[in-house]
Amino acid sequence: MLYPLKFKPIFKEKIWGGNNLNTLLNKDTNNIDNVGESWELSAVQDNLSIISNGFLADNNIQEVIEIYMGELVGDHVYEKFGIEFPILFKFIDAREKLSIQVHPDNNFAKEKHHAYGKTEMWYIISAKERSELVLGLKEGVEKKEFLQALENNQIESIINFSNPKNDDVYFIPAGTVHSIGSGILLAEIQQTSDISYRIHDYNRTDDNGELRDLHNDLAKDSINYKFEKTYKVNHKDQDNIPSRITKCEFFTSQIISFDKEIERDYYNLDSFVVYMCLEGDFYINYNNGESLNVKKGETVLIPAVLDFITLYPSVKSRIIETYIE
């Protein structure tokens, strides 16, 4: 019988990465100093997540979907995506600022790469006082102004900045110019895609001393130039009650902070559910008595067939719950 699945994190060394995945999220990163990303659950080719617990351990996510199909991911999800798991879950640690970039939408990605686009959501776990996010272009900036700024190396003059605080949530649709600034640790939930067009990288060089590639020919045509006043999501948490933070065609996410037993009824959902543990230590009770311990920094996939579970906190805990409606 299926059970809640944990996965081996896939660590990504980055020029901008730090060590907060180890120190703040308890990840065993083997003392590497510049781990920028932990891919918690991935179906990106060549980066397929491997199960770490139970009798399915050492199988990858596509192998188990191929066997269990709708029992694992939900019938409507399987009908649409087949064996490709549709959401990528990450923790990101930005010791230094990332490049300014944009992701294509589904139509552009399909045309250029035969792949999915990349709409994403950020949950800010930790941010230093002067940390910044790049989120969108300033009002009135169209393609002409964007190209002029590129030519004159003035891209930072046409972008919007935001100062994030702990527990802030941002929704970033595909086509949005964006970047994560230094001193930020966040959880990222996104479509299964690894397509990014780098626009500006502060003249940083790679290990060979070469400037990192930019992708402005693709970027200029994939940007959504419509001005958005804010990308921040207003949410108000209540203990032991789910708080909706994102609902879009690609995923729905909620924050759940709980200090007592809570029940989750997924009978009518017809989707997998994923928990990312931001704080605490709790147990998932399932199948009338079986349980699994989940700690801060861990990510767990609840198969669609497990339609009723109970969460028991050892200490006050905080999770992001994500599924497809």
Write the layout of secondary structure elements.
Layout: E1 5-6, E2 10-18, H1 20-23, E3 35-41, E4 43-44, E5 47-48, H2 61-68, H3 70-73, H4 75-81, E6 87-94, E7 100-102, H5 106-113, E8 120-127, E9 133-137, H6 143-151, E10 159-162, E11 169-172, E12 178-180, E13 184-191, E14 197-200, H7 216-222, E15 232-233, E16 243-247, E17 252-258, E18 262-265, E19 273-286, E20 290-295, E21 299-302, E22 308-323
Antiparallel strand pairs: 1-21, 2-3, 3-6, 4-5, 6-13, 7-14, 8-11, 8-13, 9-10, 9-12, 11-15, 16-17, 17-22, 18-22, 19-20, 19-21, 19-22
Would you write up a description of this structure?
With 325 residues, the protein is mainly beta. The chain has two domains: 5-233, Jelly Rolls (Sandwich); 255-323, Jelly Rolls, CATH 2.60.120. Helix content is 14%, strand content 39%. Strands 1, 16, 17, 18, 19, 20, 21 and 22 form an eight-stranded antiparallel β-sheet that branches. β16 (243-247) and β17 (252-258) form a beta hairpin. The longest helix has 9 residues, at 143-151.
